[in-house]
## 1
Amino acid sequence: MGDTESQVAGGKVLWHFTMSLDGFVAGPNRAMDWMAGISSRPGLVEEYIETTGAVLGGRDGWNAAGDSRPYGGAWHGPIFVLTHHPEDAMPADGVTFLTCGPAEAVRIGLAAAGGKNLEVLSPTIGSQLLELGLIDEIDLHIAPILLGDGIRLYDNPGCAPVRLHRVGEGDPVAVVNVRYRPTAPAKRSAESSPGAAAE
């Protein structure tokens, strides 16, 4: 399977993340150091800088990121942070703290995006918007790493399965096949290694 088609600025609500193969978008305590050394195809970051009109995130993510901006500071535009407690939030240029519901936050974000896409950079808010039918696309970049712990993209125990259609050519409900090898060889005991004498 090749890469997806280039993203376009179509006024969409994108739930957008780089995700580990086992479904985590951040490590424990929202750590992001696991992304070091992971590459993307040439021009991908520039593609999202060009097509993103506004960003919607949550308070936990904002606190973890500090006042850093998406795409290493190369993207400039309005950021909206949904929070129950805006009074103790650290202000920053271009950042608006919202106390409304997620649907209203999307309305505000799309209006500010000026016809470009609204990127949702929060697992919690993305889940809520998915339930409300307000996510146009889930845009994932699957990184070749297994984290084993952290913040999941979608963590909603007890909910009904959410069926998805893959965007692009081909069967929209076909399984996506990926194949990786560990960078270090698997450790095997002497008893299980080929050629070990049987007792």
Note: Helices lie at 44-51, 59-65, 102-113, 123-131.
## 2
Amino acid sequence: MSDIPVIDLSKAPGERAAWDRPAWFVYLWAVCELLFVTNPWQISSGLRVRVLRAFGAEIGHGVVFRPRTRVKFPWKLHVGDRSWIGEGVWFHNQDFISVGHDVVISQETFLTTGSHRHRRDMALITRPVTIDEGAWITTRCIVLGGAHVGRSVLARPMTVVSGVIAPGAIVAGPDCALVGDRFA
């Protein structure tokens, strides 16, 4: 036997703490998300946007949502005008995600606002994500809760985006290292 404890996950707090809506509404959203937003056969970006708005998402004009997009809680999502959301993007937004205008979030990017305390009880901790205007989060990035991506930042493929990133920066890698200036 080891002296290292194991956390009893049945006692972990916060399972539904981030819902902010009645259970029936969350379940109805899950059905509509599957049929109209995540559905790979659904070719209409306009229909996706209308369904997201019907569930409380604030989405600007001229926004493109490609197929296979996932949105945990649309009522915690804001996307500015003319932004492009690539195929397979997942907004796991247990807290607010705010995307500015003219932002590109490329294919298979995962944005998450929730995590857990890593010690003792695994309680849910959420922090918002802010992506300022003109940023480009390229393919297969991970954007972590608490990230603030500055104006016109470029995150190279597979970057783990975290912390505060200065406007115009180019970042890359698992440590979100500054590797250049986008407009230099």
Note: DSSP finds two helices and 20 strands in the chain.
